[in-house]
Amino acid sequence: MSKPIAVLVGSLRKESYNLKVAKVLAQIAPNSLSLKIIEIGDLPLYNEDIDTQNPPASYTRFRQEIAACQGVIFVTPEYNRSLPAVIKNAIDVGSRPYGKSVWSKKPAAVISVSPGAIGGFGANHHLRQTLVFLDMPTLQQPEAYFGGVANAFDEQGNINEKSRSFLKQFIDAYAQWAQKIA
């Protein structure tokens, strides 16, 4: 039986490289994992004033979807040497109300995706800092910085073999590691 794994994509652009990478990960994941991309673009900015007994429907939907998953993979671009606001907002929504976080103990992995040479190093590490506080054990090796992503896909949206191999190594390592800590 495959474990449901949430995939959060930090770029909202319809044709984003991050979304393309997330879809490739879902295609090549081992049978032990079932990756599901979870929508985060519809979440209002976290505000405790609207997170009452009747929170926004998108907050409730998101929390339920994350709670139903056994792990989380973050696929994120780097904005200004940090993670995008949409990822941080999703983290904040899922961590509230205080004491009812949907994140705790879920095995996490981070892959940063960038057309630049350093592959989103800053975003990757800022996100990892947050995951420590959320009590999410996080895959340490292999580290996944996907630089030069603009050259990884052809005009039809197919990924080249070298990049597919890199992603396969990452998702297989996550599957093996997550099984050990479950």
What summary fits the major beta sheet? 5 strands, parallel
Global geometry: globular
Q: What is the helix content?
A: 25-40%
Give the integer mean of the pLDDT values. 96
Q: End-to-end span in angstroms?
A: 14 Å
Strand pairing plus helix content: what structural class? alpha/beta
Count the beta strands: 5
Strand residues, percent? 5-15%
The arrangement of helices and strands along the chain is EHEHEHEHEH
Low-confidence stretches: none
Number of helices: 5
Based on CA atoms alone, the radius of gyration comes out at 16 Å
Strand order across the largest sheet: 2-1-3-4-5
Structural write-up:
- β1 (3-9), α1 (17-28) and β2 (33-37) form a beta-alpha-beta unit.
- The chain has helices at 17-28, 57-67, 85-94, 121-133, 161-181; strands at 3-9, 33-37, 71-76, 108-113, 144-146.
- Strands 2-1-3-4-5 form a 5-stranded parallel β-sheet, sandwiched between helices.
- α1 (17-28) packs across α5 (161-181).
- By secondary structure, it is an alpha/beta fold.
